[in-house]
Amino acid sequence: MMLQNPHVDFVIRGEGERPLVEFLKAWITDGDLSSVPNLGWKYQGCLIFNPIKENYPVNDLPWPDFSDLDTAQYCFEGRPMSFLITSRSCPHRCTFCSVHTTFGKAYRRRSVDDVLQEIIERYSKGIRVFDFEDDNLTFYLREMKQLCAALIQAFPSKNVQFLAMNGISYLSLDDELLELMKTAGFTHLNLALVSSDTTVRETAKRPHTVEKYLQVVNKAFQLGFKIVSYQILGLPRESLDSMMQTLVFMAQQPVLQGASIFYLTPNSPIARKFPLVGEFDVFKSRSTAMAFESRECSRDQLYTLLVTTRIINFLKGIDIPEGINTISVLLERLPARGGRVALGAMLLTKLLETGCLYAAGRDGLRSMKRFDSHLFFRIWNRLEFIRTLSGCRLNIDAVPSRAEVKPVSIGRRMGHG
């Protein structure tokens, strides 16, 4: 689809190192473009796509050259950060994922020593935070444990920090690895639950279980990890009730809720059932577009679910004073803190009392008309408590006169206002 754009002459599909080298050789020598693997190009008005071929072995690829980047421009919590990967592709076959379109189906891992030496080299250049962007960082337990042990030995002063913001498959975590990761300097754990509904996970071909998820969350919390747990909202044929179930389930765990709106990624298994047909549909392949609606869930409902997770996260992140264990008492105390906390408490109180969500701006408060208050209170009614990031239990007792909160119609469909 991108190649159809009149301003685009060439594209490379899949992994790019070998194709780019071969393309540059052909371009410089006026060689045969049809011999360049993975290349998409135009000839006499026709789109031509050369066959996909294997890339260089992952261990033969040189480390990225960041010598011309200003490390001060890429920081995490004030310290220079760099990205790296230890592997390519993923052994899982989740239907919503397009990783195999980009990296192929063969899961390949770099050697532990190669990864370690890259980290040491970047450390010598001033990098102190390293974010692993693997699609499945911990699949090979033995190698990951070896890497953690090597990092512990290489950085005994613990003046480094490791992240895995792309998410970790909790299926491959055990207590020993979690302990090693924490000792090595990992501080955050991003887990992809996707859904607490067994049927949804099986349909999406997720080989994960809720039991394993809880085991990992409980151990990670004990070790002091900051945990973000991701849910996909709007998976095709997942019911609204199922999405609400997962949202409530995660609200009761000591995790921040990461809500990701489903979008169709070209050539992912699930997209073959719901093909992108228009030239510009590819630009809808992003979460913020909220472009995929179904009979089960409208765009406004997706928006409401997303905002509801933000409301719950607001409560999860608050430092709860000793002796407070109910929402109503907490909301009474928060205005005294001032600032954004007081503002958030005021907006939530107003929502609970009036059934209307307001946003605060420079010109005062404005009503969020696309927010489905009826759906919000359906979720709120299911919440017996919220578990904060520090492990505190906040019981739900702030109940407005819900009889006055009337259901609203399904939101306007995409493309109709």
Summarize the structure.
This protein is an alpha/beta fold and 417 residues long. The chain contains 12 helices and 16 strands. The protein has helices at 17-28, 99-103, 112-124, 141-154, 175-184, 198-203, 210-223, 240-251, 299-316, 327-333, 339-354, 373-382; strands spanning 10-12, 39-43, 46-49, 75-76, 79-84, 87-88, 108-109, 129-132, 161-163, 188-194, 226-233, 256-261, 358-361, 364-367, 385-387, 393-395.
> What is the CA-based Rg, rounded?
24 Å
Average pLDDT, to the nearest integer? 90
Question: What would CATH call the homologous superfamily of the largest domain?
Answer: Aldolase class I
Tell me the quaternary state.
Answer: single chain
CATH class annotation of the largest domain: Alpha Beta
Order of helices and strands: EHEEEEEHEHEHEHEHHEHEHHHEEHEE
Topology-level CATH name of the largest domain: TIM Barrel
CATH architecture of the largest domain: Alpha-Beta Barrel
Low-confidence spans: pLDDT under 50, at least 5 residues? 401-417
Supply the number of structural domains.
3
**What is the 3D shape?**
globular
Count of helix runs: 12
* Beta fraction: 15-25%
Sheet of most strands = 4 strands, mixed
Q: Summarize the amount of helix as a percent range.
A: 25-40%
Total beta strands: 16
User: Between the first and last Cα atoms, what is the distance in angstroms?
Assistant: 27 Å
Major sheet strand order: 4-5-8-9
The helix-and-strand class reads alpha/beta
